[in-house]
Amino acid sequence: MRGRIIGTVILLSITIGGNFYIARSLYQGLILVLPHLNMAVYIGIYAFIALAFYVRLLPVFYGIKHVMNWIGLHWLGVFTYLLSLFLIADIVILLGRVTRLIPSPAPPDVRVWSVSIVVLLTAALILYGKYNAALIRHVYYDIKLKESTLPEEIKIVMIADLHFGYIAAEKSLPKIVKGINALEPDIVCIVGDIFNDDINFIRNPNVAIDLFKSVKTKYGVYACLGNHDSGETFPEMMNFLEQSNIKVLKDEYVVIDDRITLVGRLDKHSIGGFEGLERTDTADVLESIDSKLPIVVMDHNPSYVEEYGNNVDLILSGHTHRGQFIPITLITKSMYDVDYGHYQKDPDSPHVIITSGASTWGTPIRIGTNNEIVSIALR
Question: Which of 104, 165, 168, 280 is deepest in the core (most CB within 10 A)?
Fold first, then answer.
C-alpha cells in the first residue's frame, strides 16, 4: 500500500510538473512568433488537451468519452516526447552558454529554433509511431521439450493485449484473424487483456464476435484473463467470449487430444476484480495435473514465472508490451528479468515466451517495438 502511494505521488509529480514545464516552454517560443497570443486562451487550450483523458472518469455520454479519450491518449505520447525533447534542448542550450558557443542570455532566435525543432520532431515521431502501430508482424519460435511425448509437432498461435475498447483497438481484429488463419494453428492462445476495463467502449461488439468465430483451428481458441479483463462489466466480458467460441481458463486446465495440458491463470492484480474470483495458489493448480503430458501455461504477467519451478514445460505471457515505445522500453527492461521474447533460465527450467502484444495500450503508437502474432512449433 505504501509503495502504491509513493508511486502515485511520483506519477502525479511528473504529470503536473511535466505539463507546467512543457506549457511554459511552448509559450516561450510561441510568444516570440505570435506576440499578441492571449495567455488565458493558450492556458485554456493546453489544459483542455492535457486533461482530456480524465473525462472518461466522469458520468458523461460514451460518445463524449470516446472523443476525449482519443485526444487524451494521443496526448500521452505527445507529452512524453515534448518533455524528453525539451529537456534535451534546454541541456544543449545550457551547455552552449557555458562553453560560450551561444550568447548568454540566449537570443530569441535560439528559443524559436529549439521550440520549432522539438515540435517537429515530436510530430514526426508520433506519426511514425501511429503508422508502425497499424502493422502486425509475425514472430516464430521453435520449442523442443525436454522429454516430449508428442507424437508430432503441435503449432500454437499466441496473441495477447488486444485491449478492446481502447481507441477502437478492435479495428485491427480483421488483420489479426486473417494472420492467425494463415498460420493454420492447432491451438490459439489469447494470453490476457482482451478487454480494457469496460466492454462498453467497444463500438461494434457483434462484429468482433463474428470475427473471433471465424478463427480456424484444430483444437480451439483458449484464453486466460489479464489485469484489464475485469471490473463492473466482467459478466458481459465473459458472455462476449462465450459467444466468440473462446474457452476461458480461470485457474483451470484442459487436456487437448491427450497430447498436451493447457493451463490458464487468473491475473494476480486485476484492476476491477473478477466478480469474486481470485488467483489460486500455483501449487494447488498444478497438483491434480498429470505430469506425463507436456504442460503449457497461459499466465498474463511474466512476473510470476518463478512460481512454476520446473513443473511445467512452457509459459506464455504478455502484459509488458515490450515498453511499446522508446523511452518507456527502458522502464520495462528494468522492471522485468526479461520483458520480451524467448528465454530459459537453465536446461531444466520451463521455456518462457513473452509477446509484445497484438495491439497498443495507452497512447496508440509503437516506436522500437511491434504489434505481433506469435507462432510456436512445440516438438
Answer: 165
Whether residue 307 sits in one domain with residue 374:
yes
3-state secondary structure of 35: coil
DSSP line for 101-153: SS-SSPPHHHHHHHHHHHHHHHHHHHHHHHHHHT-EEEEEEEE--TT---SS-
Whole-angstrom CA distances from 356 to 105, 157, 317, 360 are: 46, 14, 9, 9
**Residues 224 and 266 both lie in one domain:** yes
Of how many residues is the chain composed?
379
Separation between Cα atoms, residue 47 and residue 49, nearest integer Å? 5
Q: CB within 8 A of 55, min separation 6: which ones?
A: 64, 65, 68, 69, 72
The conformation of residue 90, written as its DSSP 8-state character, comes to H
> How many domains does one find in the chain?
2
Specify the DSSP element, H or E, that contains 184.
Answer: none
Within this chain, do residues 89 and 181 fall inside the same structural domain, yes or no?
no
Q: Which pLDDT value is given to residue 1?
A: 54
Q: Are 267 and 297 in contact (CB under 8 A)?
A: no
Distances (CA, A) of 105 to 27, 96, 110, 202: 18, 11, 10, 53
- Which residues are CB-neighbours of 197 under 8 A, at least 6 positions away? 165, 228, 230, 231, 271, 272
DSSP 328-355: HHHHHHHHSS--SEEE-SSTTSPEEEE-
- More reliable by pLDDT, 168 or 130: 130
Residues 117 and 177 in one domain: no
Beta-ladder partners of 136? 371
Strand partners, 378: 143, 154
> What is the domain range of residue 348?
138-378
User: Could you tell me which residue, 151 or 120, shows the higher pLDDT?
Assistant: 120
Q: What is the CATH number of the domain that holds 347?
A: 3.60.21.10
Q: Quote the percentage of the chain above a pLDDT of 70.
A: 97
Question: Can you tell me whether residue 298 is helix, strand or coil?
Answer: strand
Average pLDDT over the chain, rounded to whole? 92
